Amino acid sequence: MKVINVGLLGCGTVGTGVAKLLIENQALLRSRVGAELRLKNIADIDTRRDRGLDLAPGVMVPDALPVVDDPEIDIIIEMIGGEGIARELILKAIQNGKQVVTANKALLAIHGNALFAAAAAAGVDLAFEASVGGCMPIIKTLRESLVANRIHAMTGILNGTCNYILTKISEDGSPFQEALAEAQKNGFAEADPTLDVEGFDTAHKLALLTALAFGMQINYGDIYIEGISKITPQDIGFAADFGYRVKLLAIGKDRGNAVEARVHPTMIPEDNILSSVSGSLNAITVSADAVGDILLSGRGAGMLPTASAVLSDVVDIARNLVNGATGRVPALSYQRDQIRKVPLLPIEELTTHYYFRFSALDRPGVLSKISGILGNHEISLKSVHQKGRKTDGAVPIVMLTHRAREADVKQALAEIAFLDVVSDRPVVIRIEDDNDPD
Q1: Mind telling me the catalytic residues?
Q2: Dihedral of the CA atoms 197, 200, 202, 208 (nearest 10)?
Q3: What's the CATH code of the domain at 361?
Q4: Is 321 in contact with 379 (CB distance < 8 Å)?
């Protein structure tokens, strides 16, 4: 039976899961591939830590470069992360004619255009199913299952840390910092959670999904990104009063000559299926011309869920190698000469519904001042609620708008912020509500 040698670079949490599945499910993988997948080497600077793996002597090595240069290794799995040494090793592996599997969404979002071009020129595959959504097979779905569809839109919860935090705020009324601390305690957030809570991780994933869905070059730099660190229990409570829940969404839409790609906290109706996705789960809806709307959901992170996605790529490549094929399925779904440079719609041109909260003095005429400024900028109000009354100090005024343009909203809120009757900067949350399309 043919032997396909695998080299694993990095043996942290997910790398350990990959090794575990390769070793413990070896017979299952052999029966599905028609060849033996042999883990020849694991490269990690920490060779002494007990990872609970049954490894033969010499499998664990401290230096990744000899693994990448080993002529006997057919597939390199990059689990190091980051944009530095991981990029160098992937390029070296491609140069050496090796197939590559990675879960490194940040690297691909920023350097993917060059990496995929290098892989195509070398005639090797660069696979990345685990980079988006963990065990949720969204890459394969867009690249293969929906290949006969024109994708209209994608809306996803793609970061388990943010979803866990927002769930805690919604269910327990915890302030953001307290919910974040609990997420860190339970292993759902990193010690430095910036990439997650400020939306960058989600944007990395959206950059890859828009490329796959819309036949465009990866364009991370122009995605609008806004995180959840300013979301308060008060705003989540008001959203619930109106029948909405707040989620950090990745939104990608085909706008003809441009693509809408944005990441930000969003209010969605309680009957929207994504509103019930709680805790650390990920989910994404895809709207397409032939299939209509579909939903994928699953664990977006974790040792074995992510390792499962990595191994799905390894098996796809191994099956190709058994049959003497590479490049059978284009990495970004489209043939390379069909991938276009498509502009992203500037956030100022977005038209959607909005939630506003103003902290204003409880005085006659305040509401008319605020609504007057909004009206001057063509912003029509759907509902207005003044929450509570005080003889002195500020009270919250909450408004929902009909469809308005982002540029107009920003100009109006800037004016309102300077009113002497408004004590804090206005809070704005965008609303996605298919039930109210006006």
Answers
A1: 205
A2: -170
A3: 3.30.70.260
A4: no
- Both 111 and 238 in a single domain? no
pLDDT at 371 over 90: yes
Confidence class of residue 392 from pLDDT cuts 50, 70 and 90?
low
Q: What is the Rg, in whole angstroms, of the alpha carbon atoms belonging to the chain?
A: 24
Q: DSSP secondary structure string, 329-374?
A: S-TTSS-GGG-B--PBPPGGG-EEEEEEEEEEE--TTHHHHHHHHH
Is residue 391's pLDDT more than 60?
A: no
Q: Is 152 left (phi over 0), alpha (psi -120 to 50) or beta?
A: alpha
- What tokens appear for 324 in the block? 């003497």
> Amino acid letter at 207?
A
Q: Which CA distances in Å does 410 have to 307, 322, 350, 427?
A: 43, 57, 11, 11
Instruction: Give dist(CA 367, CA 379) in Å, integer.
Output: 14
Is the pTM of the predicted complex or chain greater than 0.90? yes
For CA atoms 422, 423, 426, 427, give the dihedral sign: negative
In this predicted model, what pLDDT tens digit does every residue of 84-106 receive, in sequence order? 999 999 999 999 999 999 999 99
Residue pLDDT, tens place only, 20-76: 999 999 999 999 999 999 999 999 999 989 999 999 999 999 999 999 999 999 999
Give the whole-angstrom CA distance, residue 144 versus residue 333: 7
Report the number of distinct structural domains present in the chain: 3
Instruction: Report the pLDDT value the prediction gives residue 365, as an integer from 0 to 100.
Output: 85
In the chain, the N- to C-terminal Cα span, in Å, equals: 63
Q: Averaged over 253-265, what is the pLDDT?
A: 97
Residue 437 falls within a domain, yes or no?
no
Q: How sure is the predictor about 1, in pLDDT bands with cuts at 50, 70 and 90?
A: confident
The whole-number pLDDT of residue 388 equals: 61
Cα torsion 76, 80, 86, 90 to 10°: value is 10
Q: Give Cα separations from 15 to 8, 49, 80, 360 (angstroms).
A: 7, 13, 8, 52
Distance CA 19, CA 303 (A): 10
Tell me the CATH number at 279: 3.30.360.10
- Look at residues 161, 182, 171, 105 and name the one whose alpha carbon lies nearest to residue 302: 161
Percent of the chain with pLDDT over 90: 88
Residues contacting residue 301 through CB under 8 Å, at least 6 positions apart = 134, 160, 188, 280
Compute the distance between CA of residue 143 and CA of residue 331 in angstroms, rounded to an integer. 8
Same domain, 380 and 393: yes
116 SS3 class:
helix
Tokens for 94, please give them.
Answer: 């491609």
What the block records as the tokens of 152 is 């209209």
